[in-house]
Amino acid sequence: MTTTTAGEQTAGYMFDNATDEAKNQLRHLGEILDAGTRRILVEDGLAPGWSVTDVGAGAGTLTAWLSDQVAPGGHVTAVDLDPRHIPTGPNITVRAGDIRHLKLEGLQQAVVARLVLMHLPEREQVLAQLTEALAPGGVLVVADWDCTWRDMIRRSPSPRATELLEQFQDALLAFGESRGADMGWAKRAPEAMLRAGLVDVTSHIESRSWRGGTGICLLHRSNSIQREAELLDAGMTREDLTELREVLMDPELVLSGYLMHTTVGHRTARA
After folding, report:
1. Which terminus has fewer CB within 10 Å in the chain: N or C?
2. Residue pair 150/169 in contact by the 8 Å Cβ criterion
3. Opening angle at CA 1, ends 13 and 69, nearest 5
C-alpha cells in the first residue's frame, strides 16, 4: 500500500473519522450499504485488471472488497479526508485529502463516490472531476441518501419514542444543511450526470427495514453519540439522548433506512 496526501481537509462532511465513535459508525455504514454497492458494480462488469477509485472510502470495507475483485493486475485508489480506518493491501493506494482539491488519475474503469456529493456544495464541480477520471466506457457510481424522505417509522414502541426520533432527525439534518449538505441531492443526480456528459444513466433506489439494535438503528445511535454537542445545541437534552438511544436498541422499534439512490453513468467510449 502507498499513501499520499494532498489538499486541505476542509470538506463539510457531517462526521469525523477521528472521534472515538467513528469506527462504530463506519462499520454500521458498511453493514448497511456494502451489499447493494457490490451488487451494482458486479452487474456493471467489475472484473480483474480494473483500476477503480473509491471516493469517501471511510472504513475501507468496499475498498478491501474491490481490491480482491480486481486482482490480479488491477488497482484500487481509496480517497478520504481521514483515511486512518482504511486497510492496507498490495494493490491499494490511499490518498488523504479533500476531493474538491485532489486531481484523480485518469483512465479509471470505475469511480465510486458513496455518501460524498450530498455533503459538498461544489458537488457538480466534483462530479465533473470524477467524470474526467474515467477511461472511455468507464462507469461512475454515485450513491447518496435522499434524506427528504422521512416516512421511516414502520413501528414505534410509543408516542414518546416517535417524538424523540423525529426531534433527532430534525436536529441532525439541520446540522448537515448548516454545513452545506443537500438532503435531496440524490434525486437530482441523474440529471446532473447527464449534464456532465455521461450516458446510459440509471438510478437504483432502495431501502429496507431494521429492528431496534440492528442496521440503521445502530447507525442513528452512533450518529447521536458523534454529534451529541450539536444535538444539545438544537434543544435536545442529555436525558432525551439517553432515552433516544434506549429506543434505538428496543426490538419493538422498526425503522426503514433513508432511500438510497445509487446512480450509474458511463463515459462515452471512443469510436
Report:
1. C
2. yes
3. 85
Largest alpha-carbon pair distance within the chain?
64
Distance CA(112)–CA(58), nearest Å, equals 12
CA distances from residue 232 to 24, 114, 180, 224, 265 in whole angstroms, order as listed: 21, 28, 20, 10, 41
Q: What is the pLDDT of residues 105-137, one digit of tens each?
A: 889 999 999 999 999 999 999 999 999 999 999
Per residue in 46-100, pLDDT (tens digit) is 999 999 999 999 999 999 999 999 999 999 999 999 999 999 899 999 999 999 9
| pLDDT value of position 12 | 65
What CATH number did the domain enclosing 193 receive? 3.40.50.150
What is the spatial distance between Cα 120 and Cα 79, in angstroms, rounded to a whole number?
15
Cell numbers 410509543: residue = 158
Closest to 14 (Cα-Cα) out of 189, 245, 229, 255: 229
Q: Which three cell numbers stand for residue 186?
A: 440524490
Q: Can you tell me the distance from the alpha carbon of 93 to that of 89, in angstroms, rounded to the nearest whole number?
A: 8
What is the residue whose three cell numbers read 454500521? 28
Count of structural domains, the chain: 1
pLDDT(6) > 70: no
Instruction: Convert the pLDDT of each residue in 182-231 to its tens digit.
Output: 999 999 999 999 999 999 999 999 999 999 999 999 999 999 999 999 99
Q: What is the DSSP string of 166-193?
A: HHHHHHHHHHHHHTT--TTHHHHHHHHH
Which cell is 45 given? Answer: 462488469
Residue 105 inside a domain? The answer is yes
Structural domain span for residue 249: 2-266
Rounded distance between C-alpha atoms, residue 231 and residue 77, angstroms: 35
Model-wide pTM > 0.90: yes
How many residues would you count in the chain? 271
Half-sphere exposure of 92 (CA within 13 A, CB side): 23
